Amino acid sequence: MTRFDRKNSADVEMLDLIRHQLGAKVFDTIIPQSKIICNSINYRMTAAEYMGWLEPAKCFDRLAAEVIRKGTAIC
Questions:
Q1: Per the domain annotation, does 29 fall within a domain?
Q2: Is 58 part of any domain?
Q3: pLDDT (0 to 100) of residue 36
Q4: Domain-embedded: residue 1
Q5: CA-to-CA distance for 7 and 73, rounded, in angstroms?
Q6: pLDDT in tens, 11-47
Q7: How many domains does the chain have?
Q8: Helices 35-42 & 55-74, crossing angle to 10 degrees?
Q9: Which domain holds residue 17?
Q10: pLDDT tens-digit series, residues 54-75
Q11: What's the whole-model pTM score?
Q12: What is the C-alpha to C-alpha distance for residues 74 and 72, in angstroms, rounded to an integer?
């Protein structure tokens, strides 16, 4: 789930529905809606390059680790 706003009930409902329908196929890592991400794109930088110490940027590292972990578990 990307651009997730936990304060938005529609986002929360959608995440619940997706997890219910797809189960383990859904990644645990959630990328929040953030100005940091938008600004990094505008400056043609990764979120880590722009403000890597902030939580939204760290989410991308966690997602990458999760993709690698789940990918190696399949092989």
A1: yes
A2: yes
A3: 86
A4: no
A5: 33
A6: 999 999 999 999 989 999 999 999 888 899 899 998 8
A7: 1
A8: 90
A9: 9-74
A10: 998 999 999 999 999 988 776 5
A11: 0.76
A12: 5
